[in-house]
TrEMBL record:
Keyword Transferase in annotation: yes
The protein, known as: Phosphotransferase family protein
Record's keyword annotation contains Transferase: yes
Record-annotated Aminoglycoside phosphotransferase domain positions: 24-252
UniProt-recorded Gene Ontology molecular function terms: transferase activity
Annotated source species: Caulobacter segnis
Key words of the record: Transferase
Pfam families per record: APH (PF01636)
């Protein structure tokens, strides 16, 4: 498919002043999704998010039209997101895709937690993340696209089933499954919209303005608001700044206060531990994909080795409990 040519034809539908598109370049994307940056000839910077022809979505991934609907709902609720411009139709010749405004900032977690350019905004990021999540969690679920509902025990059971299917034998992961099963909180009285992958690395951070965009909504679902807060605190997303539990840049108290003080630290730490366990299982799955020859990229092999990091994190969490 000639994506650049299709975008050029689509340009007049994206902006009244545009007659064409230019500078189309693929930024990233694996087997399931691609991200393209491009500019309209009236100067509008945009992003195309599309599923390649023939690519199968992950079992838990939303259709891209549903993802776009959620971003629009978050935008209407005042959460910082890149505004959706257009959801592609079949005659756009881009397949399953949508177009959104392009934000200018940084998403690389290591830079966000260490570079001097972000020193001025880092102290407020944890509370800002709490505030933004509170807005997302307050979005009325009526009228949202069809979403799955999950809770603590459901997530535990799903990831244990994936773990068993691999035939893995990891004593620390085995212990973590039993420990978390024994302390799992009940489902929330009212499931809320959960982003599902809210973490450092999926946030656009501006060196002057701070958090300006929440990205990657493909894992959104209904569930426990503490899930998003706990995932944000998983050690793997601190990029070496392990003393700052929230994304490598802040503390629990600021995150919880930003959310409104309505969620206990105990509940957040449960979801943090479950997040470390889930990431450990996902790392095993990525290595298995590499070892079986389904994906021979070095990235898959390297990520697979990170299971041991999650095991260290889980031992520390279990010892501290």
């Amino acid at each position: 498919m000639d994506v650049a040519a299709a975008l050029d034809r689509l340009a007049p539908r994206l902006s009244p002043a545009a007659t064409g598109a230019r500078n189309a370049r693929r930024l990233s994307g694996g087997a399931s999704l691609e991200t393209w940056a491009f500019d309209l000839d009236d100067g509008t910077p945009l992003i195309l998010r599309r599923r390649p022809d023939g690519a199968l979505p992950r079992d838990t991934a939303l259709p891209l039209a549903s993802e776009a609907d959620l971003i629009r709902a978050a935008d209407a609720a005042g959460a910082p997101v890149p505004s959706v411009v257009h959801v592609c139709a079949p005659d756009d010749a881009l397949g399953e895709a949508y177009v959104m405004h392009r934000l200018e900032g940084e998403t690389l977690g290591r830079r966000i937690v260490r570079d001097e350019a972000f020193a001025g905004v880092r102290p407020d990021l944890a509370s800002r993340c709490g505030e933004v999540l509170a807005r997302i969690h307050a979005i009325p679920v009526e009228g949202l696209p069809s979403l799955t509902t999950s809770d603590a025990r459901g997530e535990l059971a799903r990831y244990e089933a994936l773990y068993r299917q691999m035939g893995a034998q990891r004593p620390i992961l085995e212990a973590a499954f039993r420990w978390l099963e024994s302390i799992a909180p009940p489902p929330p009285e009212r499931p809320v919209l959960v982003h599902g992958d809210f973490r450092n690395g999926n946030l656009m951070i501006h060196p002057k303005l701070g958090l300006i965009g929440v990205l990657d909504w493909e894992l959104a679902h209904l569930g426990d608001p503490a899930e998003d807060l706990g995932w944000m605190c998983v050690n793997s997303w601190r990029f070496g700044e392990w003393r700052n539990p929230v994304g490598g840049f802040g503390g629990y108290a600021d995150l919880l206060a930003g959310h409104g003080g309505d969620i206990t630290l105990e509940r957040v730490k449960f979801w943090q531990a479950l997040g470390s366990l889930k990431w450990g299982v996902m790392c095993l799955m990525m290595y298995q994909s590499f070892a079986a020859g389904a994906d021979r990229s070095i990235e898959r092999a390297m990520i697979g080795r990170r299971t041991s990091e999650t095991e260290i994190d889980l031992v520390a969490l279990m010892e501290a409990a």
